[in-house]
Specification:
Layout: H1 2-13, H2 17-25, H3 37-49, H4 53-58, H5 62-69, H6 82-86, H7 121-133, H8 140-147, H9 151-160, E1 167-168, E2 177-178, H10 182-197, H11 209-221
Antiparallel strand pairs: 1-2
Helix pairs in contact: 7-10, 8-9
Length: about 220
């Protein structure tokens, strides 16, 4: 309906449009936009301080033009000069490699040193996953001792944060089993739990469905 109304009103809007355009163009001076009261006060103060301000603005200032012609800018040296290098902080040098930055595992560069009572995202994911695999063995106290954290903070982390896991539901032909990354889960069993417990290494039960699933994946990969 709107398109039909626009099409019907178009001839009325374009009626005598050329003459109307010439009428607007032929005006000596367009109507200025209204000014704010504050601008009018500023203009009034400027005219009171110098009544000939309009004439000065319209005329060329010869003295100012002469002084501008005598101004010269001379450049010495290069940006890579020793003078520029002395201003840099040797303890925090500017990067010299302008190539693309590599993508990090977790989207940002991990710190090389971790303070006591702090941890990295990688370590947090590792001990959260290890705790989910065997919460009786990988306790909050052992994690706090291993990663130099407060036991209270570790308990809160394990309470409110979990890692995603995928399980295949039970069917008529197969039992329910874990379908996540077997390599990562095996690494957590062999490395992280061994480090937390010391010399005692927990071995997976050969009768468990998870152990059978790992063996099947390894045989398929071969």
């Amino acid at each position: 309906m709107g398109a039909l109304a626009t099409k019907a009103l178009r001839p009325l809007k374009s009626f005598n449009i050329e003459n109307r355009a010439h009428r607007v163009i032929s005006k000596e001076k367009p109507t200025p936009a209204p000014r704010y009261a504050a601008n009018m006060e500023d203009l009034k103060r400027a005219m009171e301080s110098d009544p000939n301000l309009d004439e000065k603005l319209d005329k060329k200032d010869l003295g100012l033009d002469t002084r501008l012609k005598n101004v010269y800018v001379t450049s010495h040296g290069k940006p890579e000069d020793d003078v520029t290098r002395e201003k840099q902080n040797p303890n925090r040098p500017l990067p010299q490699d302008r190539g693309l930055v590599e993508d990090f595992d977790y989207g940002f560069k991990e710190p090389e040193r971790v303070k006591y009572g702090h941890t990295t995202l990688r370590n947090a994911v590792e001990f959260i996953s290890a705790h989910q695999i065997d919460p009786k063995e990988v306790t909050a106290a052992k994690i706090a001792l291993q990663y130099k954290l407060k036991a209270e903070d570790v308990e809160n982390i394990l309470k409110y944060f979990k890692t995603y896991e995928v399980y295949l539901p039970e069917t008529k032909k197969s039992a329910a089993m874990f379908a996540g990354p077997a390599t990562l889960r095996k690494q957590l069993y062999k490395e992280d739990i061994k480090e937390i417990e010391g010399d005692v290494q927990k071995k997976p039960d050969k009768k468990s469905s998870f152990y059978k699933y790992e063996i099947e994946n390894e045989n398929k990969g071969r």
